[in-house]
Design a protein that fits this description.
2 strands, about 130 residues, about 5% strand, 6 helices, Arc Repressor Mutant, subunit A, 2 domains, two-stranded antiparallel ribbon
């Protein structure tokens, strides 16, 4: 997996690394059990401190996406499949919103609002 960062980007480098891994998981490029590149290797390739990469990996561990073991490295957890499924559902939602003429900003606001205050009765609609 190729991890890239943009030094001109306002987001911290560790967050950009975590974003790259999350995207790899969501798109299926990274699957359950796959190993992430060693932190030292990524750090050397990007010209950054290894602790920055470890910070990103620890963030992913805290999110449940990566299993981090000293001496054995970082591997993708079973949450990867669920994230991929969620991405596919999101793509369907995006497509539907485009059909309705809903802007990406409005869709984001709808999702943010739904996450902050779930709609009563929605839980009953879940399978």
């Amino acid at each position: 997996m190729l991890i890239r960062v943009d030094p001109a980007n306002e987001r911290p480098i560790y967050a950009q690394i975590a974003d790259t891994v999350r995207l790899g998981i969501a798109t299926g490029q990274l699957r359950e059990g796959e190993m992430l590149p060693p932190a030292r290797e990524v750090a050397f390739g990007l010209g950054i401190n290894a602790h920055t990469v470890l910070h990103a990996y620890q963030l992913l561990r805290d999110e449940g996406l990566v299993d981090l073991r000293r001496g054995r490295g970082a591997s993708v957890t079973g949450a990867a499949q669920a994230l991929g499924e969620l991405r596919r559902e999101a793509l369907v939602l995006v497509r539907r919103s485009q059909e309705l003429g809903v802007s990406p900003e409005m869709l984001a606001a709808i999702i943010t609002g739904a996450a902050a205050a779930p709609v009563p009765g929605l839980e009953e609609d879940r399978p």
